[in-house]
Design goal:
It contains 13 helices and eleven strands. The protein is of the alpha/beta class and about 325 residues long. β6, α7 and β7 form a beta-alpha-beta unit.
């Protein structure tokens, strides 16, 4: 006999069972079925800049390899923390991934409080590329060389404005080290990405900007002037551009990077499948050509190698930030 109590019990069981079954299915099959829907690649910087461009190059090739669309979503702001935090707090199912930048190495030391920990809330997948920065100035700048720029900055302490795509971003840290080693002081103007910063550089609203090789098209077209590169040696993409070290600040060297991360606790089979996909994407001739043309060196790694690299880079920039006394609330 179907009593009222029995009916309630059966109803409760039917409500619970689908959820339990769903949990079992997701726990058992993500590695074999992933991805079975679009993957969202979060870029923690505004659209239109070099980081965004590279992410789209990688995402496009990765879409073909994985058989599912890899959609680029820009979540810029707060020195990349908005995008980084979004991924760190996302479900660890492989459908939300981070196109991370070198700011991950600095943010823990730079900000007084973060709602995520780059080391424990994000899992490394693969490095994508390493690259130098190039020092750009507007055509209206009196400086034709790095040495001349340093001399001008020393003559006008605090008067020159350096732009960056955000406080704690790779370019900002490169500029910070440049000021320390050149013993100059400039006023920092943080933007929400490379594109808006460069728009202000061209007419001279800011006095210098450290950017990636993609921006060399602007110096080649005569819209801005490039004074040097931050690498240890001249870039094959711009062999006529001297390093900053040889052009006026001996010993200066900065190499930045981009890489892919996922939320911590993402199943390892998914991490490995994504890692293999990235390695395959970065080996594609068209991808290599596009990246190297703008001074990026494709460098896929294992998840373990990226994790080790992140720890080492974090220690390096934490020391620089501490010595500069830089802190952001």
């Amino acid at each position: 006999m179907l009593t009222r109590r029995r009916l309630i019990a059966l109803s409760a069981a039917s409500a619970i069972a689908p959820n339990a079954l769903t949990g079992t299915v997701h726990a058992q099959t993500p590695a074999s079925t992933w991805p079975d829907r679009p993957v969202h690649m979060i870029v923690p910087i505004a659209a239109g800049g070099p980081t965004d461009t590279n992410a789209r190059i990688v995402a496009d090739r990765l879409s073909k390899i994985l058989g599912q669309q890899v959609v680029v979503d820009n979540k810029g702001g707060a020195g990349t923390n908005i995008g980084n935090e979004f991924v760190a707090h996302s479900d660890p199912d492989g459908y939300t991934i981070l196109y991370g930048t070198s700011s991950l190495s600095a943010n823990a030391a730079l900000y007084r409080a973060l709602t995520y920990n780059p080391m424990t809330d994000l899992a490394p997948v693969s490095l994508v590329a390493k690259f130098p920065f190039f020092m750009f100035v507007p055509n209206s700048s009196p400086a034709k060389t790095v040495a001349a720029f340093v001399a001008d900055a020393k003559a006008r302490p605090g008067k020159l404005i350096m732009g960056s795509p955000g406080t704690g971003s790779g370019p900002h840290l490169a500029e910070l080290l440049f000021m320390q080693m050149a013993r100059i002081h400039m006023t920092h103007a943080p933007y929400r990405g490379a594109a808006p910063a460069f728009i202000d550089l061209i007419p001279g609203r800011i006095d210098c900007y450290f950017g990636s090789g993609e921006l060399l098209t602007y110096s080649r077209s005569g819209q801005v002037r490039v004074l040097g590169s931050s690498g240890s040696k001249r870039s094959p993409a711009a062999p006529d551009v001297p390093t900053i070290a040889e052009a006026g600040v001996p010993g200066y060297e900065v190499e930045s990077w981009q890489g892919v991360f996922v939320p911590a606790k993402t199943p390892d089979p998914i991490v490995q499948k994504l890692n293999a996909g990235i390695a395959k994407a970065l080996a594609a001739p068209d991808v290599v050509k596009k990246l190297t043309a703008t001074a990026y060196t494709p460098e896929p790694t294992s998840p373990e190698a990226l994790g080790k690299f992140l720890k080492e880079d974090t220690a390096k920039w934490s020391a620089i930030i501490k010595s500069a006394g830089l802190k952001i609330d």
